Amino acid sequence: MTVFRAAVFRTRRVLPGFGLSLGYTVFYLSLIVLLPFVALFLKSATLGGERFWAAVAEPRAVAAYKLSFLSALGAALVDAVFGLLVAWVLVRYRFWGREIVNALVDLPFALPTAVAGIALTALYAENGWIGKLFKPFGVKIAYTPLGIAVALVFIGLPFVVRTVQPVLEALEQEIEEAAATLGAYRWETFRRVILPALKPALLTGFALAFARGVGEYGSVVFISGNLPFKTEIAPVLIMMKAEQYDYAGAAAVGTVMLLISFVILILINLLQGRASRRTAQG
Amino acid sequence: MTIIEPAAFEGRSPAADRPPHLTEPRLVRGMLIALALLFLGVLLVLPLIVVFTEALQKGVKVYAAAITEREALSAVRLTLAVAAIAVPLNALFGLAAAWAVTRFTFPGKNALVTLIDLPFSVSPVIAGLMIVLLYGAHGLFGPWLAERGLQIVFAFPGLVLATVFVTFPFVARELIPTMQALGTAQEEAALTLGAGGLRIFWRVTLPNVRWALLYGLVMTNARAMGEFGAVSVVSGHIRGQTNTIPLHVEILYNEYRFTAAFAVASLLALLALVTLGIRQSVERRHLRRAGGGPAGVLAGGEEGG
Q1: Interface predicted TM-score of the whole assembly (ipTM), two decimals
Q2: Which residues from chain B sit within 8 angstroms of residue A37, using beta carbons?
Q3: Would the CB atoms of B96 and A250 count as touching at under 8 Å?
Q4: How many interchain CB pairs under 8 A, A with B?
Q5: Which chain B residues are Cβ-neighbours of A38 within 8 angstroms?
Q6: If I label B100, which of A147, B148, B212, B279 is the partner at 20 to 30 A Cα–Cα?
Q7: Exposure pattern of B119-157 as b/e (b: 16+ CB <10 Å)?
Q8: pLDDT digit string, tens, across residues B25-46
Q9: Domain A49-281 falls in which CATH fold?
């Protein structure tokens, strides 16, 4: 304890306000964020093991987790590919309207999700501008899992672009110069030199888009149709349970969602650590 | 769309002007640009256009009527009131947290920064649910609140609490990297010259971080006014009382009053465009002040929208 105190208080605190700012930060954080978590876990605990399991593992809930995680995964993959393309074009090339395009990338952050939801539904419904194009081929987008994925691609894109962009900007020209000197073709240079350097950022962007997609509600609820077992995502199921005053059931499903998301984020963090170590070793 | 060659621009980043062997052939460049623009056009621009065309489909009169009807106006008032409370609260927290985290070292600092980001990884629906479980009739504090005749869930305070939760990290996330990058030299100099804590904060720190703060405020506000999932759980959908703008849009939409729904939604879309405009000009100022450096700092702030 004394060693600990010495270590903590040895650092000189020149500027004033340490106690006040840290005290307020911890107090406000506990009140606004941590306390609600306690309420969630306590409520799920009131169910007891058996009923908790029954609420969490009922077929309708399992179908909802599956749909939420799979559509978020697919959407995040699409975002990773096209996000990389958009970041590449914005950083490497100069074209008319580049600054406007750059600003527009953040639209999904700024546009309220409910607005995105009804707009995407109007576009991808059978009589919508895009839905109409696919109808002759018998492809339905709105009110199917495909529509859910479209909404999640929309929501997740800026995460990938904004994490890859700064890394691409900071990339040294010399390594590409070296690769070219050694006779590498442009594509080879991209695949073996540039892409590995971007991999940690790409993984982070992917993880952020995925995490956001799993919990997304507003942009999905309109386009998904919300049929149990078919197009009902987990957040919609939680909302249904809450609206029927089944708060314990909602809390149980919510707890499972949170736990799975955290586990996946930790896994991706580990993966990312490995990717950046490998890059550092060359 | 004309594609202008690199030389026509004063390239801000070194990557802009590259010798031919370090960039792609012209044709490939053109194709990549076209593909990216097509993707963004379909994914981002079309939904934006649809909002306005649907809103104005039946003419300006119907549009004006939809956004000036009594329930729409009460939704606008409610949304403004919620944001007017939630944004300053989180701004104050962001300033305190950034000061504590960037000006001092203490054990558990990294854990604290991680916890500040926590609300970003929680589904808004779960966030709303947690507020209900805490303050609702059957919640942890429910009986205590009921005894005193206080209602939080299905009422205005619940909307504020849910909004504060989902917009919690924005200002702190924007300020922490900026204040970290600024360092403490100027503040310590002011201290040596005899300035007190508040004076240092007002005269030295605040002017230095004003653009980052503004950006954080704008993002907090955009999310606060547009929040849907969390607010939906705690609102109880009481017309004219607990319906914010996004909830009003949902009700109109579910009643098949599509034109009215899109008309009200277009107000939120305009807010989003203004937000992006401010963001862009703030970023430009950032760049001018620091000579191209903090693009990464700015970009770091958005993870999590």
Answers
A1: 0.89
A2: 130
A3: no
A4: 334
A5: 140
A6: B279
A7: bbbbbbbbbbbbbbbbbbeebbebeebeeeeeebbbbbb
A8: 889 999 999 999 999 999 999 9
A9: MetI-like fold (1.10.3720)
